[in-house]
């Protein structure tokens, strides 16, 4: 065993030295050859090199302590159970997991850049005569559990999926992972690309919290399983829509559980069928199950009708008219005809306008994405205008959600909202209820009726509804109405120029299928602005992959 200890100590010492010498920006290109420029910066901002790990095999804890001391790691708390590595070893060696005593320690070391990092030590206890010596020899040779790790800085599900996609795009191969309830953390493992020059074959992304839904996608390595998961996406949409339609979220609570029988009585559903729906939603992270029944999670709470920022209307719209029209996506791709028009016989604006309930649902669904607007009132064009008591013109402003936020943030601003008749009435009521009606006037009309004389014009999620020629026409109407000093703020999702993961790519498909519009890259918008005598001044990111495109008249863009 003296030889084994010496070998493991040498391996551990090499790991400690590596962690001390490396830094984030230098290490990522070594792991993912070809990664540079904006994508390297984006990755470096979202994940931080945290540790290097290896698996050692002491005969008991005393021997483990001796090993740590020999490597200068000093006093470290006793090991905690390592669920993920134990399960991986059990599967790899076909042994019962309860036979494998695997602990984890994280002694700290200081990096060359001054950052505090750790050496993650997995310790599988191998008592003499335990029969685990062969397993230990195999693992030392293969180094399956040796890896480099990065902590995900912002554990947002979309960011997480984007990071995983970036790793895969540069040659890293998904290699499982797991959720550790002892630490409430989720790990995503990758095999490093064959060309990697970091000296480690495996990479880990560590994400605080329970992300087993994303992990299930990550672990689906077989093509058939991956495709099957993708094909069931329609079930997810309809499960969420049914949850919203039945008002189940409104009958639930985020702090206490409720039993299926009681819940079924409240919403008028069959208990057995409701239980099946709820178990599926547990898998999606929309509800959680405990001893006292089911309760809402954060995402699930957004499907309550009365929730701040409720997305219930969006669920009803995406699982209703837009869901049905997506069945005609193949028709759109083949013929160029908009699937919604093919199915319903008219464009979606006319179709919704003829049905008051549907029109109201559409306007509420547009407001459901209001998190995109949160930073908009602080845009420099609005804060500068607010100082002089200026006027903001919201072109096709829907039910007034965005204009209301701007006026509430700047008491000296006045507003004008241009919309269709039914939307104007909804906006008038909404802004009056918010105490903002006296500072806002309303114009019923089309884009040709853009009011003149405003100081800041807003086009929020309008241009993506239309083809390029109609966009030029809309922008020309705005340009004619704008005084020379006026600013135009265009709020849209902008397609990434590098093909990275973005909600804009999904909405590009949606707009093609349901509206006949499209999402665009920033340079594409720049050409449309130029054709209307306008110029793009700058671009500011918003939540949900949105952007504010700041536009002015071309002759005054640089003054």
Please render the helix and strand layout as text.
Blueprint: H1 2-21, H2 24-31, H3 37-46, E1 47-56, H4 61-70, E2 80-81, H5 83-93, E3 102-105, E4 108-110, E5 116-124, H6 133-142, E6 147-152, H7 157-169, E7 173-180, E8 185-191, E9 202-208, H8 212-219, H9 223-231, H10 233-245, H11 260-267, H12 271-284, E10 287-290, E11 293-296, H13 298-301, H14 312-318, H15 321-325, H16 329-335, H17 339-344, H18 348-353, H19 356-367, H20 380-386, E12 391-395, H21 401-409, E13 414-419, H22 421-433, E14 440-444, E15 456-460, H23 468-481, E16 487-493, H24 503-514, H25 522-531, E17 534-542, E18 546-553
Parallel strand pairs: 1-5, 6-9, 12-13, 12-15, 13-14, 15-16
Antiparallel strand pairs: 1-6, 2-3, 3-5, 4-5, 7-8, 8-9, 10-11, 16-18, 17-18
Helix pairs in contact: 1-4, 2-3, 10-12, 10-14, 11-12, 14-19
Features:
nine-stranded mixed sheet; transferase; 559 residues; seven-stranded mixed sheet; disordered N terminus; alpha/beta; WH_DNA-bd_sf; S-adenosyl-L-methionine; 18 strands; COMT-like
Describe this structure in words.
The chain is α/β, with parallel strands linked by helices and 559 residues long. The protein contains 25 helices and 18 strands. Strands 1, 2, 3, 4, 5, 6, 7, 8 and 9 form a nine-stranded mixed sheet that branches. The longest helix has 20 residues, at 2-21. The radius of gyration is 28 Å and the shape is globular. The termini are far apart. The model is unreliable at 1-5 (pLDDT under 50).
């Amino acid at each position: 065993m003296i030889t084994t200890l010496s070998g493991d100590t040498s391996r551990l010492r090499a790991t400690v030295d590596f962690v001390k010498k490396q830094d984030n920006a230098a290490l990522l290109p070594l792991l993912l050859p070809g990664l540079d420029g904006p994508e390297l910066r984006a990755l470096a901002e979202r994940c931080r090199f945290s540790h290097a790990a290896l698996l050692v095999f002491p005969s008991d804890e005393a021997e483990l302590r001796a090993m740590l001391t020999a490597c200068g790691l000093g006093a470290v708390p006793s090991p905690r159970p390592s669920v993920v590595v134990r399960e991986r070893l059990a599967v790899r060696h076909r042994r019962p997991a309860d036979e494998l005593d695997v602990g984890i320690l994280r002694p700290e070391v200081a990096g060359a850049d001054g950052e505090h990092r750790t050496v993650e030590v997995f310790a599988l206890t191998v008592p003499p005569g335990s029969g685990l010596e062969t397993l230990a020899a195999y693992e030392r040779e293969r180094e399956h559990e040796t890896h480099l790790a990065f902590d995900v800085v912002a554990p947002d599900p979309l960011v997480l999926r984007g990071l995983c996609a970036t790793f895969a795009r540069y040659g890293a191969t998904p290699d499982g992972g797991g959720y550790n309830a002892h630490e409430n953390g989720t790990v995503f493992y990758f095999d490093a690309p064959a060309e990697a020059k970091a000296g480690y074959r495996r990479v880990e992304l560590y994400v605080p919290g329970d992300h087993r839904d994303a992990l299930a996608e990550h672990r689906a390595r077989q093509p058939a399983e991956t495709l099957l998961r993708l094909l069931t996406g329609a079930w997810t949409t309809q499960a969420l829509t049914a949850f919203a339609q039945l008002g189940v979220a409104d009958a639930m609570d985020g702090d206490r559980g409720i039993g299926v029988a009681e819940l079924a009585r409240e919403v008028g559903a069959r208990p057995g069928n409701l239980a099946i729906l709820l178990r599926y939603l547990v898998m999606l992270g929309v509800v959680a199950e405990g001893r006292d029944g089911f309760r809402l999670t954060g995402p699930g709470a957004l499907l309550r009708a009365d929730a701040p920022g409720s997305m219930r209307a969006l669920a009803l719209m995406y699982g209703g008219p837009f869901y049905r029209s997506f069945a005609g996506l193949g028709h759109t791709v083949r013929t160029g005809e908009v699937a919604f028009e093919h199915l319903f016989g008219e464009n979606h604006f006319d179709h919704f306008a003829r049905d008051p309930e549907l029109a109201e649902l559409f306007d509420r669904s547009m407001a459901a994405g209001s998190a995109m607007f949160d930073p908009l009132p602080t845009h420099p064009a609005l804060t500068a205008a607010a100082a002089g008591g200026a006027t903001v013109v919201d072109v096709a402003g829907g039910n007034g959600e965005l204009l209301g936020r701007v006026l509430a943030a700047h008491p000296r601003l006045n507003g004008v909202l241009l919309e269709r008749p039914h939307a104007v009435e909804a906006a008038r009521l909404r802004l009056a209820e918010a105490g903002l009606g006296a500072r806002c006037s309303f114009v019923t009309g089309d884009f040709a009726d853009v009011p003149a004389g405003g100081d800041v014009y807003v086009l929020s999620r309008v241009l993506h509804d239309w083809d390029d020629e109609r966009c030029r026409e809309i922008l020309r109407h705005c340009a004619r109405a704008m005084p020379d000093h006026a600013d135009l703020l265009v709020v849209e999702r902008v397609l990434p120029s590098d093909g990275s993961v973005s909600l804009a790519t999904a909405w590009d498909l949606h707009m093609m299928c349901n509206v006949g519009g499209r999402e665009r890259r920033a340079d594409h918008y720049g050409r449309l602005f130029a054709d209307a005598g306008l110029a793009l001044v700058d671009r500011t990111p918003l939540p949900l992959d949105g952007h504010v495109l700041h536009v002015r008249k071309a002759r005054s863009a640089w003054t």
